[in-house]
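Q: I have 321 residues here and want to know how they pack in 3D. Can you give me a structure?
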Amino acid sequence: MIDFYLSRIEEEIRKQSYGSQPKSLYEPIRYMMSLGGKRMRPLLTALAYSLYKNDTEKILKYAVAVEAFHNFTLMHDDIMDNAPLRRSKPTVHEKWNVNTAILSGDVMLVKVYDMFLDLDKNMLPTVLALFNTCAAEVCEGQQWDMEFETKKNVSEAEYLEMIRLKTAVLLGFSLELGALLAHAPEADRTALREFGTFIGIGFQLKDDLLDVYADKKKFGKQVGGDIISNKKTYLLIKAREKARGNLKRELEFWITAKKFNKLKKVKSVTAIYDQLGIAAITEQKVLDYFSKGFKKLDTLPDSPGKQNLIQFTQELIKRQS
């Protein structure tokens, strides 16, 4: 069933028309949306809707709106991170230029609102209010992420709150949107939103781990990019917390070095992580958050739709890319 939903989501993405002229404004949007990815957010919307209704085709457009918003944030995030690759392909600002990527992202966000406009007039205000809250929180999370770049010390609690905002709340919104479109009880909507938020934090922690330890051929992004840029991920925060003596001095050397060989830095910092057991600590934290998420589903009645949701989430835990 998950593969079926994914195929229909891809069809819906191909159906969307974002605009034509100037070509240089709209082609980057089509390029970004064609890069694929997990389509996790629209899938979560479809899965949540399927808990209550069988006519999932009716809401795929709104599920794809969530995916368009997600890709808008990625387009702009890639500029801020100076990222060369997205899903193993050149990022929009690399393939075109920074100004084009900014403008194309802006139009992409406008198109998200367009996609919601034909919702039932009684539902539209609620959906837009929830979406606006979520979108603002995503921006808040991104701003915290950027501010952490120049902040000397970031606590574990600060980091977890940042990824809750930047990554997790959109997963929560995706699920709540599906439940809302299906006219689910408010208690179910809340449970699904909280489930999505918890697994979203776990998902981002797993992403931090994969940035260091993933197979380069599978990951689709630059492995070790977080180490090169001194990004204050969960792994780095825990390493600075646990390192002592020579390990601490070596870690601080690589963090403060202005000129360095990128490959050597990634290899050296990864070796420090290995000595401190950071991968195992992070894996446990990932499992903790997914476990918190699963507990939120306990309040929902058992059904094939619920099992599909659980199956998909378990696959996220095991993912290697």
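Q: Anything worth noting?
A: Residues 49 and 182 are 5 Å apart (CA to CA). The domain at 2-318 is CATH 1.10.600.10 (Farnesyl Diphosphate Synthase).
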